[in-house]
Amino acid sequence: MTIRNLDRLFEPSSVALIGASDRDGSVGKVVLRNLREGAFKGDIALVNPKHRMVAGLPCHADVGQLPATPDLAIIATPAPTVPGLIEQLARRGTKAVVILSAGFGGAEGRNLKDRILAAAQPHLVRLVGPNCVGMLAPAIGLNASFAHLMPAKGDLAFLSQSGAIITSVIDWAKARNIGFSYLVSMGEMADVDFGDMLDYLAGDGGTNAILLYMEAVTNARKFMSAARRAARLKPVIVIKAGRHGEAARAVASHTGALAGSDAVYDAAFERAGLLRVFDLEALFEATETLAMARKPPGDRLAILTDGGGIGILATDALLDFGGRLAELAPETVARLDAALPPGWSRGNPVDIVGDAPAQRYVDALTILLEDKGVDAILILNCPTAVTSAVEAARAVIDTARPHDRCILTNWVGDETAQAARRLLIAAGLPTYDTPEHAVRAFTNVVRFHRNQERLMETPPSLPDAFATDSAAARAIIDGALATGRTLLTAPESRAVLRAYGVPVVSETIAHTPAEARQCAERTEASIALKILSPDITHKSDVGGVVLDLATPAAVEAAAVAMLERVKAKQPAARVVGFTLEPMVHRPLAQELIVGVSEDFQFGPVILFGQGGVAVEVIGDRAIALPPLNLKLARELMERTRVHRLLRGYRDRPPAALDQIALVLLKVSQLTIDFGEIVELDINPLLADHDGVLALDARIRVQRFDKPAATRLSIRPYPSELEETVAIADGTQFLLRPIRPEDEPQIVAGFAQLSPQSIRMRFFSTMRELPHSLAARLTQIDYDREMALVLTDPGPAGRQSIYGVVRLAADPDNERAEYAIVVRDDMVGRGLGLLLMQRMLAYAERRGIKEVFGDVLAENKRMLDMARRLEFVATPLAEQPSIIRVTRRADARLRR
Length: 895
Prior knowledge:
Elements: H1 6-10, E1 14-18, H2 27-37, E2 43-47, E3 53-54, E4 57-60, E5 72-75, H3 82-92, E6 96-99, H4 106-120, E7 126-128, E8 134-137, E9 142-145, E10 152-160, H5 163-176, E11 179-185, H6 194-202, E12 209-214, H7 220-233, E13 236-240, H8 254-258, H9 261-272, E14 275-277, H10 280-292, E15 300-305, H11 308-320, E16 324-325, H12 330-339, E17 350-351, H13 358-369, E18 376-381, H14 389-400, E19 406-411, H15 418-426, E20 431-432, H16 435-456, H17 470-482, H18 490-499, E21 508-510, H19 513-521, E22 527-532, E23 545-549, H20 552-569, E24 577-582, E25 590-599, E26 603-610, H21 615-618, E27 621-624, H22 630-638, H23 642-646, H24 657-673, E28 677-688, E29 691-694, E30 697-701, E31 723-726, E32 732-737, H25 743-751, H26 755-762, H27 771-778, E33 785-791, E34 801-809, E35 815-822, H28 831-846, E36 850-856, H29 860-868, E37 872-875, E38 882-888
Parallel strand pairs: 1-2, 1-5, 2-4, 5-6, 6-7, 10-11, 10-12, 12-13, 13-14, 15-16, 15-17, 15-18, 18-19, 19-20, 35-36
Antiparallel strand pairs: 3-4, 8-9, 8-11, 21-24, 22-23, 22-24, 25-26, 25-28, 26-27, 28-29, 28-30, 31-32, 32-33, 33-34, 34-35, 36-38, 37-38
Helix pairs in contact: 3-4, 6-7, 7-9, 10-16, 11-16, 12-13, 13-14, 14-15, 17-18, 19-20, 22-24
């Protein structure tokens, strides 16, 4: 389930408290007091078999005796009673329940939770908890919790797995007059989880930002889909606790050791467009800043201060948080020279000296606002006996007001700064109590908007489709599993990579030292000799690698000595023989690592970083969730330190960055195609100006009986929907799902539509398709939406698109809205009917019960096609010029 019946939780007309009590110290008494002291206008009913009256209100013996069915029930009774109560409430028709009760740990507790779900799910009853503090909806005066305070009304929604965090936030926010739309203690999330809540709150008009305190997600794919949708509509800011937990399983690869769970959460949050912060103060600080601060075009900060020391502290904080100090233009410095006293700093931070009157702030700020190299300005003010903090604040406000620039402020101190801060807040200028907090807020704003822009960036066109031999890879993986092996040998691992077009070093296998010598005699290159064993993961650790062997005799001698070393260090290891590889001499190449590891929550993750034998010690890596495209692959590379080296320095030319990105794409595709791959290492992957080459690889596999893509937290491109189709005149097209790379062709196709066609499709006139909308139309979540395009065969982004049909399902997968457009020069050839038939068939396979669309009454062609496809047409009562066409799943296409 997703948002179904959550309206009964957030907007109930009646509430029942089960376990109501007047016993001091009981949860039932506190909840009843909170319900009565709020401004909730609905009915409140009480249930407790031990009382006929509680706190002056009638109390019923059981749920069956309630005079009316409550929308929302709150349970505050012992855990063993809860399954029976859920069953009774479900029979009465209650659709939302908050379970405050604890005691659901261990085997017995898990059994109770299973019974609760079994009672609730057939009746679509939504459950919050168990083991939670409850929920609060200040907008309707509902305090269905045992929190100690009722927060103010506002537009922030706060969701927390920790009840203690909920109550602490309420206390903290009350002192600062911070208001909320909703606060929900999630508890153990037996049913309602973060994905459900994000889906609901994304569409809630009273919520302008969503704040999360998270310990773990439950359904990763649902969370990612919901988070990506919500983050496109409003800020979603998250604290993830447990950052330093260690992985609880042994791993056989460098990637497994490096891809810790917190790094995976970081990758997930970034991919979804969420902003992660690390404490409660930063959570609300970021929320306030995003609400007040203008969007900066970049991360170059100018600091304007009347105190040199405080400016240095701000600079240190900026660098600590990964920000950049703006470099002032020479003309800016010259103008400041003319406007400021001789003692000013002549650089950034701009220290206008401690005796600065208000006018000096005006002069300096005016000049900085005109510097194109400054993206944002932080204004600092230190209290002195010769200047007025309030006058300086007024001057800053008046100067900043006409400008659409990102300006943040910090009036240092307490007593003397309070009045100035109130003025700044009233004027809509974000203000902070320390320079460090101000700088942190700025870098959070930059990160947030950068994440949002990444959601909207158009990836470059795909390269010509790289050839894959999935049958060859399948044979190797199945062969290993059939013999009971989970670790592929190095030659097998390289063969799998070779099947997906990854450049790998060639090798020869020898089973004995004498055979190794014979193999060496057939090559003129010096040899790298490596042990070949299904039981040895890291060959260097057991002396299983010898490099630069120049003669066949040296190869044989090294093989004999290697067998002795391996037997001494790992006597139980089965030795198959040796691999002989030609030595690769690329002295300017960087050693990289590309890998895959299985996260127990988010599924496969892809790792990139600096490789070599010291990879864990260096720890230079970044992680991303598949599927990748070229843009995402390049961003993954850019998040590492080694990327700066790959761009070239001194006498070293840049490495072939496109070839590295392509390897990441190929590994991503391998991960998508084979659910059996749980760990993969390419280490080292050599990269220089001439290209890339994988020297060593290891792959660990296990049986996987479901479709491979089901383990990914983001549904990959559904290639199974691709097909070649022909229309009546014999013309053939490629019908396929839309890709992000299609944006340029979608924009080009829009430009060929007539104003009339645009109005029919968008119900308004637009001269061009804005990038933000084009990105949204092409970067879809295949788990929630589908868009099919008719195009010519070839790479996405390079071939014309002649028609598009899209389907957007609600989070419950019950109803979906369609939209269709065909290029004007292709109208009348049957493309629209073909697209609609394919999309309706897809909706039927998805289990969508109803497909609908809105059509202008004058759009006769679309209405005729809808009738032909057995849609029912109904004018909208509020807009008769728009016809709602609806088709139930049990309708059948007319032949």
